[in-house]
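FW: tagging you since you asked about this chain on Friday. Here's the raw sequence from the shared folder, copied in full. Didn't touch anything.
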Amino acid sequence: MSQNPSLFLSVGKPVKDEYGCGIGKIASFAVTPSGKFDSVYIELGDGTFSKHSTDHLKINGADITLISNIKAQSDILCDQIPLIWRKDQALKDLTEKKKISKEMYSELHANFDGLLTQLKTEAQALLEEIDDEIAASTDTIKGLNYAFVNLEIEHDIGKLDNPTYETAFAMIQANLKRAHMEKTDFELTRSKLSNVLLGDSTRTRLPEAPKTSSSFSSSPGLPEPPVVVYVKEIGKAGV
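HL: got it, structure written out here
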């Protein structure tokens, strides 16, 4: 999020998550000595406070949204992994053109390779965290479906009047919608991150095609990054 000196004007305003559910209100910000907004403090509904990076805040007029930590980390990794890969490939290209020495290539390549390894390790750990969230969303959906069935039974046998039934029905439906949206979002985030890793590892294993005189004549500059295809896994979007 851009550093906006008027951020303190949002103190006291409500904050929602990515699915429109209220989280709490902005209580204050942590500011570095240089004046950079570092963190935001949010008062939750139960009166407790939570601290988040201001990079996770998305402000659109009067609407303030807190982006989940998982999605923020995934976006960073999906940008950084292909970028570092491209830099490493550009470095290799410079070596082949004898624009840098082999010694310099070895040193810089080791740096890029080490960073890629670190980023991919972080991505694998994040995938495991996403899997846990998908499992939790699945359990929530299952529980809400059971609640819905029991609500219908109690209403059908006359133990719930219509106003009470309709109120409870609306509550369950709203929570089911949110749970489905959350699960689908986690699955799409997982698919995106998985394909970035798959594209990188596949490209790394493939042998290089022999260069011809026209190989790069129409595409000067950095080589293309690994091809990433975002595929939504069939059968996981809804329960």
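FW: The beta strands are 14-16, 22-31, 37-44, 49-53, 57-60, 63-66.
HL: agreed, and Residues 151 and 157 are 10 Å apart (CA to CA).
FW: great, closing this out.
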